[in-house]
Amino acid sequence: MPGPVLRAVFGAALALGVLAGCSADASPDEVQYAGDYSSHPPLAVVGYPSTGTLGITQQVVWRIADGDADGLAALADPGRDRGTTEKTAENWIAAFRKGAGGKVTAEFYDEGSYRQTVVLYLHDTGQIKEIYILPVNMDGQGVFRVSMAEPDPGEATAVAPWVPKKPGELGSKMVP
Q1: What kind and span of H or E run contains 138?
Q2: What percent of the chain has pLDDT over 70?
């Protein structure tokens, strides 16, 4: 019977082999997503997101919380002016970074397979941020991106009159 040290070495080698074998199947994006998911507070969800709209919303909150303006701008609609996108990313981080690092509820309005309005409730700061998620074609693939066209800090922090003060008050349906 092997000793405890030999069993520990064997166990570590086996675990490393399993991890290395599994990691070959994961894309760099999947590895980054897993790291982001495990290093940020969970996102509470109200409404009915699609997989795509939920994924991009999580990434928006994470990039704001991390203060990653380049990463946030990379999530934008590629059809937008790059200067506008970069300024919007800076505005969102300056205004919402503290709140995005804590408890956040994302309310997804209406049906999410095409375009979706999402309202972020940043509980630690009491802030509210409305974002728009839309599908775009990138490199022949249909992906979701966020509309980032708020280069004015006042516009970036404005809350539309229809947005409720608490998640779920409208039943996740848009007010016409």
Answers
A1: strand 127-138
A2: 84
Q: What are phi and psi of 20, to 5 degrees?
A: -65, -40
Four-point Cα dihedral 82, 84, 87, 90, nearest 10: -80
Confirm whether pTM is higher than 0.85: no
CA pair distance 56, 78, nearest whole angstrom: 14
Instruction: Residue 142: name the closest of 33, 32, 34, 52 by CA.
Output: 52
In order, the DSSP letters of 36-65 are HHHHSPPEEEEE---HHHHHHHHHHHHHHH
Three-state DSSP class for 14?
A: helix
- Cβ-in-10-Å burial (0-12, 13-18, 19+) of 63 comes to buried
Record the tokens describing residue 39, joined without a space.
């290093």
- In sequence order, what are the beta bridge partners of 51? none
The C-alpha atoms of residue 8 and residue 58 are separated, in whole angstroms, by 38
